[in-house]
Amino acid sequence: MSDRYQDLVHTSVGKFLVKTLGLPNPPRLERYNAGDPLVSGTILVGAAPGSTLGTAVADALAALSIASTDALAEGEKIKGVVFDATGLDSAGDLDRIQEFLTPVLRSLGRCARVVLLGTPPEHADTAGRAIAQRALEGISRSLGKELGNGSTAQSVYVAGGAEDAIASTLGFLLSPKSAYVSGQVVRIGTAGITDAPAFDVAAPLVGKVALVTGASRGLGLAMAQTLKRDGATVVGLDVAPLADDLEREMAALDGEAIVLDITAPDAPQRIAAYLSEHHGGVDVVVHNAGITRDKRLRNMATENWHKVVEINVDAPQRITAELLDQKLIHSGGTILGVSSIAGIAGNNGQTNYAASKAGVIGWVAELAPRVAADGITINAVAPGFIETDMVKTIPLTIREAGRRMNSLSQGGQPIDVAETIAWYANPGSGAVSGNVVRVCGQSLLGA
């Protein structure tokens, strides 16, 4: 859906009004196009004394064909910054970050990226180290709100033993693929998996099979298209009323269609049978199908409460359990849930929806350590305000508030959620498990 306000602020009149009245100024975000380099520009790399990820960062950037430097030339514009903060052991050590970042932030180009690397605070062996490492989140979240111009900031915690598994995550967070992701925290190797295989940067999913539910339109279709772009064979699933759309879209992707209600008692068995017969299993399982039935709790019908919970979290859990029981998710495979900012922050009139989406987060946290021994990961995305057809039904004032109440002052696009799913699905993300990443432009609502 068109954002007319964003179009206005990029006219001469709009620029004058924004500057004069202090109005939100949503920038044009750069997004990735197939065939583009991951990063069009140079990344400045720095480190605190005693930090340990220097070699891993250099190797990852080289593998991704991302240009980097450790010294900023006078007048040079850079596309991003990676700072290795694993050596910080006390509150006083935090000065190292300020001393490094303050002189270079004015040299960031538009839609630039800042990534702070640390070690998991929960693994710290001293109080000072726990303080310094946890502080990275406060720095990156605040910086994400300061940068402007379409730029973003994130923190990444790398567990011991997972140092060589950072390439996929760096590639995602430094590139336009993460256009609408900011102020997030990613944990690598903290859910029992610490290794990740090498991958083809352009087509990491060649030879992989991906199941996407709710694939006929909206977010699910964007996910299917993006996974296909990355080389996967896509099996799309949706309900009978959307069968024509599903079959048309999957045919365009050289994919396959399953017409099925995921809440049917035998749905898990039927899905498992199809994947076993046609593909011998599956590598990527994306539980995107979901619904809303909004009412305040005092007016909520039991059937609407039950249906939302059943579709959004109960059916994905049951389907996944069946696939795991039949050992149909291959080693190196991944399970992906779709949560929501509503599951984190809550939302007026959406107690049923918020319950289901918070439930997705609980499911991810519980399952991640259990499937690690089989080399399987599970993660979730939590979209914020995304410009889908559903937006058209939202009253104008609420729609505009949803768009502007984030650090990027605009709604996201379905591709932004799909790119996050594709990063999780990348075999190079094999040490990323148990994460919930918000795709919300760093919304002002929630954590």
UniProtKB/TrEMBL annotation:
UniProt entry tagged with the keyword Oxidoreductase: yes
**In which domain of life is the source organism classified?**
Bacteria
Instruction: Cite the PROSITE patterns for this sequence.
Output: ADH_SHORT
Q: Which Pfam families match?
A: adh_short_C2 (PF13561)
Enzymatic class: oxidoreductase
The similarity annotation says: Belongs to the short-chain dehydrogenases/reductases (SDR) family.
What name does this protein carry? 3-oxoacyl-ACP reductase
**What organism does the UniProt record list as the source?**
Mumia xiangluensis
